[in-house]
Amino acid sequence: MQHCESVKGESFMGKLTRLIYASRANFRPVEASQGVEPTVGRILFQSRRNNSRHGISGVLYFGDSHFFQVLEGEPQAVNETYRRIGADSRHRDLTVLSQLPVKERLFSDWSMKYVPAENSVKAFLAKRDYLRFAPLRFSKSEAEELARLFHRQQAEGEGSGPLPARRFSLRRLLPF
Ligand SMILES: Cc1cc2nc3c(=O)[nH]c(=O)nc-3n(C[C@H](O)[C@H](O)[C@H](O)COP(=O)(O)O)c2cc1C
């Protein structure tokens, strides 16, 4: 079945891309006794506001001062968002780990899902002999596997995090 979406009045047939990148934080994380690290919280707020406007979905993970982010959507929107993110002084060393045309989204309900540090990520790292979260060194298949792990957790209803994660249906944003 062909997938047809229309965002901001433009129609396109089934063109979706998934970009996964990693980066290193430029700030010293504040030890939050509970909840999300404050800078990460601000990033999530901006991401959810902008991404829902541009038909972008995805997931953000922050651990050991590194970001791992999945961006999904229409290729131009994903590339523009990535360019904007790349100019952000809150992180550096952005490295694209994977970019693939995809038939469907992994995080269709989330303008930007947040995954808090948790045991499943520790197990993922341990299985691959990583002592710390070092996503800049991930291979393409490791990046895709971690994205799928986050997808499975979402399907199982885990890991939505302490922020009121804003759910949205892309379909509900569309003008038809
Ligand atoms: C790790 C990281 C992830 C980000 N992810 C997104 C994102 O998914 N979408 C987005 O619009 N901005 C994201 N941002 C923020 C952008 O870099 C930029 O600050 C923001 O888009 C500017 O939006 P504004 O002009 O509406 O304030 C991210 C920033 C960082 C450091």
TrEMBL record:
<feature type="domain" description="BLUF">
    <location>
        <begin position="16"/>
        <end position="113"/>
    </location>
</feature>
<dbReference type="InterPro" id="IPR007024">
    <property type="entry name" value="BLUF_domain"/>
</dbReference>
<dbReference type="GO" id="GO:0071949">
    <property type="term" value="F:FAD binding"/>
</dbReference>
<dbReference type="Pfam" id="PF04940">
    <property type="entry name" value="BLUF"/>
</dbReference>
<dbReference type="GO" id="GO:0009882">
    <property type="term" value="F:blue light photoreceptor activity"/>
</dbReference>
<protein>
    <submittedName>
        <fullName>Sensors of blue-light using FAD</fullName>
    </submittedName>
</protein>
<dbReference type="InterPro" id="IPR036046">
    <property type="entry name" value="Acylphosphatase-like_dom_sf"/>
</dbReference>
